[in-house]
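Lab notebook, design round three. We kept the backbone fixed and only want residue identities now. Task for the bench partner: fill in a sequence for the structure below.
Input structure tokens:
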């Protein structure tokens, strides 16, 4: 028996297909072709978004040397992307619902491709940061619309879960190839890590012209400046604290702005006629837990490459290519296991899979945090592989459970909330960990503190994941 959200999505998707296409084997094949095209486009979009986040970590030392950036500049190169990504995801979810997933995705992809070229052409760290802001804004539009494309194309919960797993393959492929590709490209120039997004973006845009237009809904848009101020103030305060200390007036002021803006945002959502983030959405235990799991997962999964890239190149003296190779097992394991995550969840249950993945991540982070700095590089690489296993065990089943827990009309908004929590986790991880690593004299101590903080956050999320309903997709069929 279908749960209510899935049943609604079946009805709406069926209504969007002409009667002639809903009868006969040939019609089924045609619908499958359209579904596969939507999945391919969403996968390519997720590929470039993930690749850009992964390759930049390996290139940070080269960017520092070429553009004369300090630790604060490097943090902003990473966080400019994640900050706008997180701040605009909430509005972008409603944008996808209102204008249609296909139309919103196309606009975001075009901007992302142009901004990637701008990053590669940047003549200073300031211009690079500005281009990264545009990349983040574009990625914010792409992410929820890509998930909504999949939700519309695959109404059946089992097929949707498997489609989400294949969609995650785009990220897994980018993650697995990113470190080595970034290392190779950085040997040529760090600029090529951004130029590589351009041909992929063009291919996806060409394919998008063949996809059917997505349905549009009369969903009000509410561009909340308070959300941007809250996230921006929090990120700025955490990054600046690394250089000036937490007692600096500008740091205290940034945190005050963040708190006030967040309070204003919550108040506006509670009282507004058309809230960007309906607070009633969090009455769903799955939505609330998914937001926390997404946040914690990215703190570890996104924060680890940032700190370890700097450690392996600055402390251990590895080249960018050797550093990329060290990350390869961690990234490859995701590419290998992701295609099987949906089937494993069908047999073992999503809750069990998510909990196991988070516990493995926490264990790997703890061991990395206490490992001597002089340990062989292959040991670090092997332990990062343990962290990498958490990716396919946690994210695909969590996203599938989230999509199955909300009505189709809220798919874009729920996706935006989920991915916002992920990006906030990534932005704060870079801000806090970068602050701990800012002093070269205490770099190793900051490295250990960063990894242990990530482990604590992850284990808390593992405990919270036990609150999820352990319903397999097969049980909904």
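Proposed sequence:
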């Amino acid at each position: 028996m279908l749960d209510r959200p899935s049943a609604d999505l079946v009805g709406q998707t069926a209504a969007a297909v002409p009667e002639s296409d809903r009868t006969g084997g040939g019609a089924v094949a045609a619908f499958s072709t359209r579904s596969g095209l939507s999945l391919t486009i969403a996968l390519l979009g997720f590929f470039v978004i993930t690749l850009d986040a992964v390759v930049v970590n390996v290139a940070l030392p080269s960017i520092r040397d070429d553009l004369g950036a300090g630790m604060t500049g490097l943090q902003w190169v990473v966080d400019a992307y994640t900050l706008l990504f997180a701040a605009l995801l909430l509005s972008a979810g409603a944008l996808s619902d209102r204008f249609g997933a296909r139309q919103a995705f196309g606009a975001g992809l075009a901007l992302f491709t142009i901004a990637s070229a701008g990053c590669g052409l940047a003549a200073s760290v300031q211009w690079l940061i500005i281009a990264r802001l545009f990349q983040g804004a574009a990625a914010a539009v792409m992410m929820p619309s890509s998930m909504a494309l999949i939700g519309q194309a695959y109404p059946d919960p089992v097929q949707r879960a498997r489609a989400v797993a294949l969609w995650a393959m785009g990220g897994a492929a980018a993650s697995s190839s990113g470190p080595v590709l970034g290392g190779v490209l950085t040997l040529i120039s760090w600029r090529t890590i951004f130029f590589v997004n351009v041909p992929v973006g063009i291919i996806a845009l060409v394919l998008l012209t063949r996809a059917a237009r997505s349905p549009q809904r009369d969903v009000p848009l509410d561009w909340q400046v308070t959300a941007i101020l809250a996230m921006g103030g929090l990120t700025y305060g955490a990054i600046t604290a690394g250089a000036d200390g937490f007692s600096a007036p500008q740091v205290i002021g940034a945190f005050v702005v963040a708190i006030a803006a967040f309070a204003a945002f919550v108040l506006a959502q509670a009282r507004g006629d058309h809230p960007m983030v309906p607070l009633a959405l969090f009455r769903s235990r799955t939505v609330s837990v998914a937001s926390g799991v997404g946040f914690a997962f990215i703190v570890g999964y996104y924060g680890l490459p940032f700190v370890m890239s700097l450690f392996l190149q600055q402390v251990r003296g590895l080249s960018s290519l050797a550093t990329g190779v060290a990350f390869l097992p961690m990234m490859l394991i995701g590419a290998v296991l992701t295609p099987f995550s949906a089937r494993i969840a069908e047999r073992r249950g999503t809750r069990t899979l998510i909990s196991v993945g988070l516990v493995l991540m926490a264990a790997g982070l703890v061991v990395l945090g206490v490992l001597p700095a002089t340990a062989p590089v292959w040991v670090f690489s092997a332990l990062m592989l343990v962290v990498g296993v958490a990716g396919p065990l946690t994210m695909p089943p969590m996203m599938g459970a989230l999509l199955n827990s909300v009505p189709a009309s809220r798919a874009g908004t729920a996706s935006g909330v989920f991915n916002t929590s992920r990006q906030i986790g990534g932005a704060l991880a870079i801000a806090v960990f970068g602050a701990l690593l800012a002093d070269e004299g205490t770099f190793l101590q900051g490295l250990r503190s960063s990894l242990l903080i990530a482990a604590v956050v992850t284990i808390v999320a593992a405990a919270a994941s036990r609150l999820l309903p352990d319903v397999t997709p097969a049980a909904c069929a």
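Keep this in mind before ordering anything: Residues 1-31, 473-477 have pLDDT under 50 and may be disordered.
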